[in-house]
Amino acid sequence: MLLRRRRRLPMPRFEAPRPESASPPRTGHNNGPPLDPEESWRGFVWRKKCKQAWKVPREIALRRLARAEALGMSYRDYTLEILERGTYL
User: Fold this and answer.
1) Burial of 78 per CB tally in 10 Å (0-12, 13-18, 19+)
2) Residue 66: phi, psi to the nearest 5?
3) Cβ partners under 8 Å of residue 16, min gap 6
4) What is the pTM of this model?
5) Angle at 12 between CA 10 and CA 17, to 5 degrees
6) N or C, which end of the chain has less CB nearby within 10 Å?
7) CB–CB of 14/31 below 8 Å?
8) Using one digit for the tens of pLDDT, what is the confidence trace for 12-59?
9) What are the residue ranges of helices labelled H in 1-89?
10) How far is residue 66's CA from residue 80's CA, in Å, rounded to a whole number?
């Protein structure tokens, strides 16, 4: 059986334009676009915790709803006040 050698093609070099003052990328950098500050890990955690703050057990939601109606507020407004101040009205 005759063994054949595989020829490796040279890897194409794609380089994104960089400003003159930028330092060369570190090892492992894929030359992708810079990350948006809005879409960073902190933004992800913030959105996750905001969603989690609105999820409460049924009994707590019903108690807040009753208290909000007694004060003449909506449930959403009453809950926002609790979340902002950290105290009950």
Assistant:
1) buried
2) -65, -45
3) 31, 33
4) 0.50
5) 150
6) N
7) yes
8) 676 666 666 666 667 766 666 666 665 677 777 888 888 888 899 999
9) 41-54, 58-71, 75-85
10) 15
